[in-house]
Write a structure and sequence with these properties.
The complex is a heterotrimer of chains A (332), B (363) and C (509). Chain B has 15 helices and six strands. Chain B is mainly alpha-helical. Chain C has three domains: 235 residues, Rossmann fold; 159 residues, 3-Layer(aba) Sandwich (Rossmann fold), CATH 3.40.50.300; 75 residues, no CATH class. In chain C, a hairpin with a 3-residue loop joins strand 13 and strand 14. Chain C is globular, with a radius of gyration of 25 Å. The chains are: A mainly alpha (332), B mainly alpha (363), C alpha/beta (509). At the B-C interface, helix 9 and helix 10 of B face helix 2, helix 11, helix 12 and helix 13 of C.
Chain lengths: 332, 363, 509
């Protein structure tokens, strides 16, 4: 349950209180080390644009992982995110291209659908006490299945609103640039940070993840919090889906297969405890960047194949889960 | 009649029978089985044949779930198993030699048992939550499979290997016989020894099991090894059927189907009592569903939507709080919230009362 | 004080659960500026009363009055908002949040929806200062000691204008200094006019801090007295229930069973200064063949803890065990079982039976676990054993395929006994085997204990009912405040009165 250490030396106490930062610091060191190794080994690796490209290429993953962070902080999990991303992209492409709906109607609609689907899953999880894993699994089947029923083939997008947004480049000093997606993603991160650390909802998320029973007895709105995190995750997945649409300029049922695993991996590598209650959204950003750098290094290496990404990510997962376990065991 | 409906397998069997019968509307000769060139052909045979890998994976999953665990990595293990066997065979000059195939199969099964042991070590040894522990191999496993196949689809030309998933023996597809053997072996392993009882005990009440002197760690680790082996055999079967190994797509999502089969078969995800027969029926239901959707001409991908609905119905039916809320007995209804007072989240039940329904439900 | 208006009062409270009257016609009063102890044994209705007071349960009949006006809380939050706060034995806070957050969460200071951390921290600091507590409010609560966490829970409870503070066994896991610190806070709150309802099993603590005491027994209110008018012995008698005379009669009626054990043989189990920190102080205890040793003591006195140490369910951190003359370490239940020890836990459902399995499976489980999974009991032997014990213990219905979940309490207890009896243990530990079962089953289990001991089994018999302990035991060990304070032969000199005295005030000097 909790520590029973009665008296500690001041330093030990200060360290004990800050243990939750260890995984995030570990991730940051890892990220810096990987960038350094990459810079030494590969010419042209160390440039501002490479860093920015990490954000550009992983904008959708970043947004999805931010939503996942909320869910995992409460001790839950959301397996439906990849499928919701695909469904959102599919809906965008289908409604805009096949039915001629204006993008400015379609995008809010897609976001709303994501939000509501998350809300529904959250309500089932809370009120009927079914494991989040199985409910979101059903959500994943449903969203993926709906993709297929909409279209079996890829629908490419030529609507100017989408193509303009996709090609938009925002120049930065020093000849650098970012895409609109990256800006949106950073914006979402900023909002998530404020929500998690400066609003009651955010603190309730941590409280529920720390001890749900206590949170109830402390009079915190556990039901509302649980439903909110899944709604947020649903919204973020839909938003990630829109960014994904911008990235791919198409809707396809097989888009974003396995994205949920990447998102979970990013959150865990970012130092969030899978059992809930501890973690930071900025850690998740670091986690996404680590995944991005792994991919970049593998691209630069040339001789390494893409599947090494999965293996390395799996190993990192192992390391971080073991780290969490060790810290958790010490706190017990 | 009443005692029938109370039997825990009544609903799964009914569902399977109904699904099979519904096919008659679309294909009147659905139940006919013909003999062609000494082989039996027919839709029922097809269902068994194509459902064989899922049955295998679900069997292992049943034991894991009985202990209160879960194994997300079986899909990845399926792909590794097939990749390893096909790679081994493809490296030999004489692909058709029986010795080569036996070696490849032995290597694959050995490795998959090791992968299962790895999961078991993390869960039972290190005490990591099963869903988290097996996530590691789920993520890394497909990468390993692609590493083995070098990202290619390895094609083999080996008639002994082809037998496992595509051959015939005594008029039946070999895969059906293989599954029958594995099912029988698992049933013997669990019900002829005390393994099944002890697993159900550990999954049903871990603390009581400790106090009765059961060494649960070894038992739990063993279930993951069995799950790994079952996935290994399924992987061989899948790759043998198409004489090739696709590290990326072989066994994709089979872990989810397997969990679904176990749940439909009446084994609770919380652990405890399990039913191997139920799992086999559950797996057959899923396969029949796919076959039915295929034969009636609906795009096969719609299966996912149906599966989603089935998952939710089965889980809701198993959920005590759902039953409490929907089929609430009037005598036990908590008093309704008075107007103007905060809603459901504001009135939690006490910590010592898991049986107490959450204080207020909006009417 | 009685002239004063009660701040929290119940009138004629009834609460029924299926098959049990948890509370019957309870009139309870709590006044401002007093510390009021609520006492009672297991099943007396203490926690039900607290849950009715805080709105976790709704009373079936009767009213709860706060400051003289009837109220009907729908949950702890409403109760809290009305000024009735509760602090539970298990700290119900979030260990991952900081001290300041635990105090302020749910009522943070905000500007435009955003939490003002600085202001909240200051508020937390001020509150802690009020009780002379010096803490780093930014440290996670989990890094603080349990005592500090308990104090933080109290500070959270009184941070809003609290009129009533309910402390449900706050001292169970604290050491003496920590208890003193807690009492300091309690006294200060009393001085500030807060009404405090204090539940504890430690009699000395009750006398140290309370002004008045209410005793519940079997769901009815036995008495409400100023603490200084109720001597220790009287308090214990009222909790345990039977009037002294009745108890003595029963004691005399039962045959005295002292002195039958053969003291030349090595005891089946001997504990030499065995103890565990925070659980039970080091004790000596030996049980011989054919001997029934009774453990007497109040709820929370350490009865169960002794049993768990003897069974290896908890690991002893001090002392040595000897099993039939051989020194051993009882590190796990498995080791204890191999040594011929069996343990029927008082929590049948959580620590005993596997409710989803059948009677047959539950009965053979211990024997099968000892054999390992590769050597199943042969079917014939299994059926024969199950059949024999179902008949011998009159398990009803006598259907081995019945799920244990569907049995009555008495039959569940019989299944649990059968499970251990087929292992033919040399020592049988029974923790409250007769609680919550009907009177017929109770008498049967008592008879069984006698006949088992006559056949040579050693039995450790734990019960809250002194009558039972006296009737069955050859020797009686008395526990008080987690210490084994006395061990006596059950001869004519040992009376219920003497045991009650020991429970109330410690060993005779």
């Amino acid at each position: 349950m909790t520590t029973t250490t009665v008296s500690q030396a001041p330093l030990a106490k200060a360290l004990a209180g800050r243990q939750r930062y260890i995984p995030a610091i570990g991730t940051l060191s890892l990220l810096i080390a990987m960038i350094l190794v990459g810079s030494v080994r590969y010419e042209g690796f160390f440039s501002g644009q490479i860093i920015l490209n990490l954000f550009i290429d992983n904008a959708f993953l970043l947004v999805v992982a931010v939503g996942m962070t909320f869910v995992i902080l409460t001790g839950g999990i959301d397996l439906s995110v990849g499928a919701v991303v695909a469904l959102s992209a599919m809906l965008c492409a289908w409604l805009v291209e096949k039915h001629g709906w204006p993008p400015l109607v379609v995008i809010p609609l897609v976001l709303l659908i994501g939000l509501l689907s998350g809300l529904g899953m959250g309500a089932i999880i809370h009120y009927f006490d079914i494991q989040p894993f199985i409910v979101t699994l059903a959500g994943m089947f449903l969203a993926r299945g709906l993709c297929y029923t909409i279209s079996l083939n890829s629908i490419s997008i030529s609507d100017p609103v989408f193509t303009d947004l996709a090609q938009m480049q925002i120049g930065l000093p020093g000849g650098l640039f970012v895409s609109s997606s990256a800006i949106f993603a950073v914006l979402i991160v900023a909002i998530a940070f404020v929500v998690l650390h400066y609003t009651r909802l955010g603190r309730n998320v941590y409280a529920v993840g720390g001890n749900k029973q206590s949170a109830m007895l402390m009079g915190l709105p556990v039901a509302r919090t649980t439903m909110s995190v899944y709604a947020i995750s649903g919204f973020c997945s839909a938003f990630g889906g829109v960014l994904f649409t911008l990235y791919m300029l198409s809707g396809y049922s097989l888009h974003a297969v396995g994205l949920e695993l990447d998102a979970i991996a990013a959150v865990v590598i970012g130092g969030t405890l899978l059992t809930g209650g501890s973690g930071f959204v900025l850690g998740t950003v670091l986690g996404v960047l680590v995944l991005g750098v792994i991919q970049t290094i593998i691209t630069f290496q040339g001789t390494l194949s893409s599947w090494w990404t999965r293996i390395v990510v799996g190993l990192l997962l192992l390391v971080f889960i073991a780290l969490q376990r060790v810290i958790g065991a010490r706190q017990r | 009649m009443i005692t029938w409906t109370r039997h825990r397998l009544f609903w799964p069997v009914m569902l399977l029978v109904l699904l099979l019968l519904s096919n008659l509307f679309f294909t009147p000769d659905f139940f006919s089985i013909q003999m062609k060139q000494g082989h039996l052909y027919g839709s029922l045979i097809d269902i068994l044949h194509f459902g064989a890998p899922l049955i295998l994976v679900s069997l292992g999953m049943t034991l894991v779930i009985a202990t209160g665990g879960i194994d997300l990595s079986v899909g990845a293990v399926v792909s590794i198993s097939g990749a390893l066997a096909c790679w081994t065979i493809s490296q030999q000059s004489d692909q058709g030699s029986l010795g080569v195939v036996v070696m490849a199969v032995a290597l694959s099964l050995g490795v998959t048992a090791l992968l299962g042991a790895w999961n078991g070590l993390l869960v039972a040894g290190a005490g990591i939550q099963p869903i988290i522990a097996t996530l590691i191999l789920m993520v890394a496993g497909r990468g390993v499979a692609q590493l083995i196949t070098d990202g290619q689809i390895i094609t083999v030309n080996s008639s002994p290997y082809k037998v496992i998933g595509g051959g015939y023996l005594a008029t039946l597809p070999f895969s059906i016989l293989l599954v029958a053997i594995v099912v029988a072996a698992t049933a013997l392993l669990t019900r002829r020894t005390a393994l099944g009882l002890l697993l159900e005990s550990v999954g049903g009440n871990a603390e009581a099991s400790r106090l009765v002197g059961i060494r649960s760690r070894g038992l739990i680790a063993m279930t993951y090894i069995v799950a790994g082996l079952c996935a290994g055999v399924a992987g061989l079967m899948i790759s043998s059927n198409v004489s090739s190994a696709d590290g990326n797509n072989a066994g994709l999502w089979i872990e989810l189907d397997a969990i679904l089969a176990v749940v439909i078969g009446g084994t609770s995800l919380l652990g405890g009592r399990f039913s191997l027969t139920g799992t086999v029926i559950g797996a057959l239901i899923i396969q029949t569903l796919s076959t039915t959707i295929y034969t009636i001409g609906v795009p096969p991908e719609t299966t996912l939507v149906v599966k989603a609905i089935v998952v939710m119905i089965v889980c809701l039916a198993q959920s005590p709080s759902f039953r409490a809320k929907v089929f609430r007995r009037p005598g036990f209804a908590p008093p309704a919230a008075r107007p103007g007072e905060p809603g459901p989240d504001a009135a939690p039940a006490g910590p010592a009362d898991p049986t107490e329904t959450k204080a207020e439900v909006p009417a | 004080m009685p002239q004063q208006q009660a701040i929290l009062e119940t009138r004629g409270i009834h609460k029924q659960f299926p098959g049990v009257n948890a509370l019957t016609d309870v009139d309870f009063r709590l006044f401002p500026g007093e510390v009021h102890a609520l006492m009672g044994e297991n099943g007396a209705g203490k926690s039900t009363l607290i849950k009715v007071l805080t709105g976790v349960y709704q009373a079936d009949a009767g009213t709860v009055l706060l400051g003289g006006t009837p109220v009907r809380f729908t949950g702890p939050l409403q109760a809290q908002q009305a000024g009735v706060s509760t602090v539970y034995q298990e700290v119900n806070l979030c260990p991952n949040l900081s001290v300041a957050e635990n105090i302020c969460i749910g009522r943070e200071h905000r500007t435009a929806g955003l939490i003002r951390w600085g202001s909240d921290r200051q508020r937390a600091r001020d509150l802690l200062e009020r009780f002379q507590l010096d803490l780093d409010v930014t440290a996670p609560l989990g890094s603080c000691s349990l005592a500090v966490q308990q104090l933080v829970a109290i500070v959270r409870a009184v941070a809003v204008s609290t009129k009533v503070l309910i402390l449900d066994e706050p001292t169970s896991s604290l050491d003496a200094d920590e208890v003193e610190q807690l009492f300091g806070v309690i006294r200060q709150l009393r001085a500030e006019g807060v009404a405090i309802l204090f539940v504890s099993h430690f009699i000395d603590q009750i006398y140290a801090v309370s002004d008045r005491v209410t005793v519940l027994r079997n769901g009815t209110l036995v008495c409400e007295e100023p603490i200084d008018r109720l001597p220790h012995l009287e308090l214990v008698k009222r909790m345990i229930g039977k009037e002294l005379e009745v108890l003595e009669q029963l004691g005399d009626a039962a045959p005295r069973r002292a002195g039958t054990a053969d003291s030349t043989e090595a005891p089946v189990i001997a504990a030499d200064q065995v103890g565990r920190r925070g659980s039970v102080a080091p004790f000596d205890l030996a049980i011989r063949r054919g001997e029934v040793v009774g453990l007497a003591g109040l709820l929370g006195s350490g009865r169960t803890e002794v049993a768990r140490l003897l069974f290896g369910a908890d690991r002893a951190d001090a002392g040595r065990f000897t099993l039939s003359g051989k020194a051993t370490t009882l590190r796990t239940p498995r080791a204890a079982i191999a040594g011929g020890i069996a343990f029927c836990s008082e929590n049948r459902k959580t620590e005993g039976l596997i409710e989803d399995l059948t009677i047959r499976d539950n009965i053979i489980l211990a024997l099968q676990a000892a054999r390992g999974w590769t050597r199943p009991l042969p079917a014939r032997q299994r059926e024969e054993l199950v059949e024999r014990y179902i008949t011998a213990l009159r398990i009803s219905p006598p259907n081995p395929d019945m799920l244990v979940r569907n049995l009555s309490g008495g039959n569940q207890q019989r299944v649990l006994l059968a499970r251990w009896l087929i292992t033919q243990p040399r020592l049988l530990i029974l923790d409250e085997p007769t609680r919550g079962i009907d009177i017929g089953a109770k008498a049967e289990i008592q008879r069984l204990v006698v006949s088992l001991s006559e056949e040579g089994m050693a039995v450790l018999f734990i019960s809250a009912e002194l009558e039972e302990v006296l009737r069955l035991s050859h020797r009686v060990a008395v526990l008080r405040d987690r210490k084994l304070v006395e061990e006596r032969i059950n001869d004519d000199d040992l009376t219920a009165d003497a045991i009650l005295r020991t429970i109330a005030s410690g060993a005779h000097q």
